[in-house]
Write a structure and sequence with these properties.
alpha+beta; globular; five-stranded antiparallel sheet; 5 strands
Length: 121
């Protein structure tokens, strides 16, 4: 898989897996932006994941690399009713299981570390 294709995958569709591996690597929390729109009948749907990323020493990190200001990241993955929260690694693994967002493929964690995190360390 080319680096640019993988970056696109880890920004759009699998950012939660990238954020999980990055959080484990840097031993930090995962920050998440959800779209928290409600249905017309008043029952909230399951939250829609807009983007997941981490923060290291006040700098935000996703598959694009480091960013001092989180708002360009938030604007790029905009939401009509954004809700922001953060999770410990264990809590985020539970959220991934709860909403059935999939799991890391065999060797994927090492691939992310080697090709997408190590160049920024």
């Amino acid at each position: 898989m080319s680096r640019s294709l993988a970056n696109t995958n880890y920004l759009n569709g699998y950012c939660h897996l990238f954020a999980l591996v990055a959080a484990k690597t840097f031993n930090t929390r995962v920050h998440v932006c959800f779209e928290n729109a409600h249905t017309e009948r008043g029952a909230p749907p399951p939250p829609y994941l807009v983007h997941a990323y981490i923060e290291v020493d006040g700098v935000y990190f996703d598959a694009q690399g480091f960013c001092d200001d989180p708002y360009p990241v938030h604007e790029q993955f905009g939401a009509f009713s954004p809700e922001y929260t953060s999770y410990t690694i264990d809590e985020f693994e539970d959220v991934i299981r709860q909403f059935e967002w999939g799991e890391l493929l065999p060797l994927e964690e090492e691939f992310i570390k080697k090709h997408h995190i190590a160049p920024f360390m």
